[in-house]
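Look over this one:
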Amino acid sequence: MKKIVFIGVLLSSTFCQADEWHNALLGVCNQEDNTFKVEYHGKYNEDGEKMVKEIAEKSVTSCNLSDGTYELKPDLFYGASKGMARCSAHEFVEINVLHDGKSIYKSFVQPDCHDSASYISSVTISPNSSGKVSVESKEGTPY
């Protein structure tokens, strides 16, 4: 009887699915303040699906400021593609901001798969009076 119970536990555990993490970058162009801000957002499962749809409706990928055009070009990288564990199929988001076609900022902007480290939660780009671009990044902690 012990063998039957053990086999039943093994069979039922193969049907368990890991939570699905969703990533989104929100681009906000504020011409009055002369800034282009990019915020990282992430949530699990249905909340994540809803978040992605909401951000897609209001996010911008291009911003015209006093010294030219800024563009958001995100990249998405995957960990192991067929994993069942929490970290095995993790996605990594890299933000790339271009100014008049040249990359001025590039970095990964999300927590690790264990939510154990701080991460870049937002980046604000603004031209300054000397003609250079100022980049401010803020770190956050998961949740």
Observations:
- Strands lie at 21-30, 35-44, 62-65, 68-72, 75-78, 91-99, 102-108, 119-127, 133-140.
- The longest strand covers residues 21-30.
- The chain is about 20% helix and 45% strand.
